[in-house]
């Protein structure tokens, strides 16, 4: 951390606390739940906590879903080519695999009629870009149906070009829609965040939207007699939906769908008949124990994302769809190597950018804008997220595009600042500076003309200063307060009942004072293995990434205030309780 970190306690919503107790949750569980929701959520609390698939929102509430089904069914009956276009991240790759599996294995479309296009992060950038559009027009058969996944809502000009060249376009997406509305050149824009959407859960991932389209298509094909009533349901694809949902860091607290999707997906991944990709990724990332939500977030997703960050993401789709275990294992190992390369690039970029960020903070900036002339666009998002965590401010991380006089950025935020809304405001002020932009509350991407950078940086900081004027900016770790019971395996199980944890439904973190009894570096020297005494009892502890610039932050005999998670550690078939320290001072 580059600034002093504040350890603060979550506010507890009283109405949620009492409602959770009435539903039978323990006092500790109720307190965790009440720290992640507000009293305004009390009426739908049972739905928010349910992990039952029967509670999933049906696809018929999505805007344009019937029009989209009309277009797709017509294309299938006419035996038109079907082009799948998706984002290059894990959500996009998962959505691509869902669509291809559905069309090929559930709806009977021959594989030779399905064509895959995924923009290259460096050559094309995010969305249905000009270069991707040029490539499709130059080489794709037509007339043809295009179905986008995890993109397209802000790409009207390129979609209009595709339409004019004989393509029929159905957009599926979950990113924000421009104030002017969805792209009129698309025959349908299936997006739960549209202003006219009746879909009650705006927090689902792009892969979930794609899956819902497929569910609606199955229903339509059965209704029209194109499929038998006994045609398989698409629940077997929920492992892919779970991966994309977890990877895209969508809101798990206020979604009535996301936790149930992830829970079901994990059950499929841990079953004996799981697809080869999961075992391959598990082995390649040195997995231990069952596959959990944390496995998806911290092991599988970074490896899948690394492929799209540094190379073509079509390989990610091939891995997810592989039915050959040895081939999947070879691909997964290649992806781990890509991830190792990504980590080295990330380390160098953070070393350069941290100095810029620190200077902007000293100058009083409420938001940070980085321009890294040697930056790699595939690692922007991770670096922006790390800087946002370290400095407690929104971050836009720019570097030059591979060609031309443009720069591209990934943006990440902190609580209280909405990325897409800020981008919309800046684009409205300086429309001539923008080539492309998009995003949602927590993250976004933008391509600018190079000479627009200073105007962007000033507007970005100004909007943040206004939005965060009632917030204390700076790095902080939010905890669930002191753990009022003795740490034990029983408490770990009590907390695990609230899984899956993720964005806005974070794993419980507690604060407490402890005396450092032992400390030693492990791994590459940046991590610490400790023994900490709390309430006259010694606990093993691990603190990842504790050592910065070779400086150990704690010493034997020191009493510190810690933010920590309860965890277990299995070594040589013996499982012990341990603390996972998030921060100590």
Automatic annotation (TrEMBL):
Domain DHHA1 positions: 369-460
Keyword annotations of the record: Exonuclease, Hydrolase, Nuclease
Presence of the UniProt keyword Nuclease in the record: yes
Domain DDH: 82-245
Pfam families: DHH, DHHA1, RecJ_OB
Domain of life: Bacteria
Residue intervals of the RecJ OB domain: 489-582
Gene3D superfamilies: 3.10.310.30, 3.90.1640.30
InterPro entries hit by this protein: DDH_dom, DHH_sf, DHHA1_dom, RecJ_OB, SSDNA_exonuclease_RecJ
Gene Ontology molecular function, alphabetical: exonuclease activity; nucleic acid binding
Family of this protein: Belongs to the RecJ family.
Protein name stated in the entry: Single-stranded-DNA-specific exonuclease RecJ
Species annotation: Acidithiobacillus ferrivorans
């Amino acid at each position: 951390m580059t600034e002093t970190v504040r350890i603060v306690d979550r506010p507890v919503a009283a109405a949620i606390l009492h409602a959770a107790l009435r539903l039978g949750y323990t006092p500790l569980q109720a307190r965790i739940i009440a720290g992640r929701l507000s009293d305004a959520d009390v009426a739908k609390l049972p739905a928010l906590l349910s992990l039952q698939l029967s509670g999933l929102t049906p696809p018929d509430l999505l805007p344009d879903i019937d029009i989209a089904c009309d277009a797709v069914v017509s294309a299938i009956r006419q035996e038109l080519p079907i082009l799948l276009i998706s984002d290059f991240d894990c959500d996009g790759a998962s959505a691509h695999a869902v669509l291809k599996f559905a069309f090929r294995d559930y709806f009977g479309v021959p594989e030779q009629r399905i064509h895959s296009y995924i923009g290259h992060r460096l050559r094309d950038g995010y969305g249905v870009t000009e270069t991707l559009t040029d490539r499709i027009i130059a080489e794709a058969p037509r007339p043809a149906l295009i179905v986008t996944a995890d993109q397209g809502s802000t790409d009207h000009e390129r979609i209009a070009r595709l339409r004019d060249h004989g393509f029929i376009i159905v957009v599926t997406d979950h990113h924000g829609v421009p104030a002017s509305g969805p792209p009129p050149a698309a025959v349908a824009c299936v997006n739960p965040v549209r202003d006219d959407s009746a879909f009650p859960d705006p927090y689902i991932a792009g892969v979930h939207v794609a899956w819902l389209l497929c569910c609606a298509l199955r229903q339509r094909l059965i209704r029209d007699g194109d499929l038998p009533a006994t045609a398989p349901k698409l629940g077997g694809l929920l492992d892919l939906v779970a991966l994309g949902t977890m990877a895209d860091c969508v809101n798990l607290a206020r979604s009535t769908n996301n936790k149930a999707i992830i829970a079901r997906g994990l059950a499929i991944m841990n079953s004996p008949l799981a697809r080869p990709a999961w075992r391959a990724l598990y082995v390649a990332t040195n997995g231990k124990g069952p596959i959990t939500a944390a496995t998806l977030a911290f092991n599988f997703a970074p490896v899948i994302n690394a492929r799209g960050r540094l190379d073509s993401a079509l390989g990610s789709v091939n891995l997810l769809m592989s039915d050959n275990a040895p081939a999947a294992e070879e691909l997964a190992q290649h992806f781990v190597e890509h991830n190792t390369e990504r980590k080295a690039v990330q380390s160098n970029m953070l070393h350069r950018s941290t100095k810029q960020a620190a200077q902007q903070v000293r100058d009083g900036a409420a938001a940070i804008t980085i321009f890294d002339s040697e930056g790699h666009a595939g690692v922007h998002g991770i670096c922006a997220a790390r800087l946002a965590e370290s400095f407690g401010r929104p971050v836009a991380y720019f570097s030059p595009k591979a060609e031309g006089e443009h720069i591209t950025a990934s943006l990440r935020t902190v609580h209280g600042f909405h990325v897409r809304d800020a981008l919309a405001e800046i684009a409205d002020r300086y429309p001539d500076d923008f080539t492309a932009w998009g995003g949602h509350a927590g993250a976004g991407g933008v391509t600018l003309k190079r000479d627009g950078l200073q105007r962007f940086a000033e507007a970005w900081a100004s909007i943040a200063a206004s939005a965060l004027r009632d917030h204390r900016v700076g790095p902080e770790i939010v905890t669930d307060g002191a753990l009022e019971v003795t740490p034990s395996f029983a408490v770990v199980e009590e907390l695990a009942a609230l899984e899956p944890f993720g964005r806005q439904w974070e794993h419980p973190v507690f604060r407490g004072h402890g005396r450092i009894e032992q400390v030693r570096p492990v791994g590459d020297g940046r991590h610490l293995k400790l023994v900490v005494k709390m309430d006259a009892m010694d606990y093993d502890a691990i603190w990842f990434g504790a050592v910065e610039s070779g400086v150990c932050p704690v010493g034997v005999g020191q009493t510190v205030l810690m933010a920590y998670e309860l965890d277990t550690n299995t070594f040589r078939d013996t499982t012990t309780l341990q603390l996972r320290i998030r921060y100590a001072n």
